[in-house]
Structure formats: C-alpha cells, structure tokens
Amino acid sequence: MNPVGNEVPTEGNAPPNEEGEWLLLARESYRIAKDWFDITQRPRLERALAHASNRHASGSVFMSADYDKRSKLFRPKTRAMMRKQESAIGVAFFSTSDVVACSPLNENDPDQVAAADVHRELLNYRLKNSIPWFSIVMGAEFDAQTQGAVLSCQEWRYRESTTVSDEIDESGNPTGKTVPDTVVTEDRPWIRLVPLENLKIHPSCDWVDPINSSPFLIEE
Questions:
Q1: What integer is the mean pLDDT of 26-49?
Q2: Looking at residue 7, what is its pLDDT?
Q3: Is residue 218 helix, strand or coil?
Q4: Contacts for 147 with CB less than 8 Å, ≥ 6 apart
C-alpha cells in the first residue's frame, strides 16, 4: 500500500515492494507538478521569453490568418527596457573594485574590525576568482525580468583524486608496500542558475517559502 492507501500496480503476481511504492509516488508527484506548470506557468513564460527575444508570442493576433499579409515586425521596446535595467544592475554591483563590503557592528572592537577585514578579503577573492560573478548576476537579472523569479543552487564543490605510490622507508628505499596519496583537485564555492521549468514543486506549497513547504522537489 502506498501513503494514500491505494494498491500499487505490479507486474504479474509479484507482491508490491518498497521500491515500487517509491517509484509510483515519484511518478505521481512529477505528473502533478508538470501538469500544473504546463497549464498555469508555461504559457506566461513562453510569452515573456518571446517578447524578450523581439518576437511575437504564440497566439498573438499578428500570427493569425487575418494578419497573414501584414507586417510582423516587433518593436524592440521590451528588449530596450531590459538592456537599460541590465546597465543599472551592472553599475550597482560592479562600480567599485570590491565585490562586497564588510563592516563590523562595533568599530571600536579591534577583534570585530579584524574579522570584517578577513571576511571581506575572503569573499572578494572567491567572487572574483572562484565564481563567474558577473555572468551569474547578469543571468539572474535576465531571469528575474523575463520569468519573474530566479532559481539558484549554492553548493561547495569538493573533489579528491587518489593515487597509489610506493612506500619509502627512512633510508629512502622502497619497502614493497604501497600507500594511497590523496590530492584535493577542487575545493571552492559554486553557484548555478536553474531554469524555472526544470524545477517541479507541489502546486499547493506556500508561495512565501515554496522550497521548504513543498512535499517534494524534482530538478530535471
């Protein structure tokens, strides 16, 4: 039995198992989220993306048979407005040499002043060298203007590579044994933007906090 009390369909006479229950639940969750998104959100997003690309959206009167012989030129007012906003965002975020500014709560406390300086240097280093900050910010700004929302995933990428080498004794001679040698190949923060249509959530989740209130999260 699955959580809603319905019998899980199985092949042949095989009894239902836990894997089958979870698979059925995952399929039903995906179907609910996809149907809701395709009906309520996808038409709006496709129309917004078409206008941002200087194209008439699907279903526009300019695409109908009555306008077959008329001009289909699209005045790029939408794109021009977005470009102006992109310039304002670029100036707001990148007008100074420092990406972020950190200040202590109590400027008379030398420990807080030193901690703020360390945090500022660390954050500026990471955002300038580890993360393509300009591309991330501009991409998020484009998503916000076209989709009305931005989805991003913040993670710390850590990878190790293990090799095997011969063990050497104190005199420099091999002992005939091997020892593993682990080298860190990647150790840095990372931010990636997720397309809005690639994340499936429950239609009844709290709009203020959809990620934490949805009973499932499915990323395609």
A1: 93
A2: 46
A3: strand
A4: 45, 48, 196
Contact (Cβ atoms closer than 8 angstroms) between residue 56 and residue 49: no
Q: Which of 132, 147, 150, 145 is nearest to 86 (CA)?
A: 145
* 3-class secondary structure, 200: strand
Token readout for 207 is 């709009």
- Tell whether the model's pLDDT for residue 160 goes beyond 50: yes
Tokens 């059925």 -> residue: 24
Residue whose token pair is 């975020």: 93
Residue 27 has pLDDT above 60, yes or no: yes
Position 104 pLDDT exceeds 50: yes
Instruction: State the pTM of this model.
Output: 0.68
Burial class for 8, CB neighbours closer than 10 Å (0-12, 13-18, 19+): middle
* HEC-encoded secondary structure of 94-141: HCCCCCCCCCCCCCCCHHHHHHHHHHHHHHHHHHHHHCCHHHHHHHHH
Tell me phi and psi for residue 38, to 5 degrees: -65, -35
Name the residue among 127, 65, 70 with its Cα closest to residue 93.
Answer: 127
Hey, what are 121's tokens? 């240097």
* 200 and 217 Cβ atoms separated by less than 8 Å: yes
Q: How far, in Å, CA of 100 to CA of 120, rounded?
A: 7
Q: What is the mean pLDDT of residues 35-46?
A: 93
DSSP state of 217: -
